[in-house]
Write a structure and sequence with these properties.
The protein has 195 residues and is mostly beta strands. The protein has one helix at residues 2-16; strands at residues 21-24, 38-41, 52-58, 61-75, 81-94, 102-106, 122-126, 130-137, 150-158, 167-173, 189-194.
Length: 195
């Protein structure tokens, strides 16, 4: 009897387990079913050059972007695949490194519409020299946007691969409908230097 119970448990466990296939980020996807059971992993280490703190200072204002790698992030409803992503946040500091230093804005803040503080407001993937993805500028104060967030797309293109320090062009832009009088708070076209 004990052996029958063990065999039943093994059969049920093996039926409910799905093998997960690890594939590179460049794995070809032709239809939705191609995602099933896969973990899209940064096998080539392309994300590593983007991870870290990037900044630009103009006058007394310093814009910082902090990027980190999120491994095996679940996707689908219900979850049917996983993917490595680059996530991040941003902040603007006035008079960085002086006694008068002041944080002008920071994306790491409580968002009532989300019911919490987001871990990241930047999410994307990367190839050899370019990261692209989405950005939620949650530092906007506008009566037109009661949520306080403006969604857009972003890119970070490394300009001097193989050199130190790395420099990249940061671009943020709207897609779809534009809202008159509502602009991004974050810089939309600057050169950032990796720290």
């Amino acid at each position: 009897m004990k052996n029958i119970i063990i065999i039943i448990i093994i059969v049920i466990t093996s039926i409910s387990c799905k093998a997960q296939q690890i594939v590179g980020m460049d794995y070809p996807i032709l239809k939705a079913e191609d995602y099933d059971g896969k973990y899209f992993k940064d096998l080539d280490g392309n994300y590593d050059k983007f991870v870290g703190t990037w900044q630009n200072t103009i006058g007394n204002m310093t814009f910082k972007v902090i990027l980190f790698k999120t491994e095996k992030r679940p996707y689908g409803d219900p979850v049917n695949h996983y993917m490595d992503r680059i996530s991040g946040r941003f902040l603007m500091i006035e008079n960085l490194g002086t006694p008068n230093e002041r944080e002008v804005y920071n994306s790491m803040k409580y968002m009532p519409t989300l019911g919490g503080t987001p871990k990241g407001v930047i999410s994307g993937g990367a190839g050899t020299t370019t990261m692209s993805g989405t950005i939620w500028d949650n530092t906007i104060t506008s009566t037109i946007l009661p949520s306080g967030m403006l969604w857009g797309e972003m890119s970070l293109k490394i300009l001097n691969i193989g050199n130190t320090p790395l420099q990249a062009r940061w671009k943020v832009f709207r897609k779809g409908l534009s809202l008159e009088g509502v602009e991004f708070n974050v810089p939309t076209d600057i050169i950032l230097t990796k720290q």
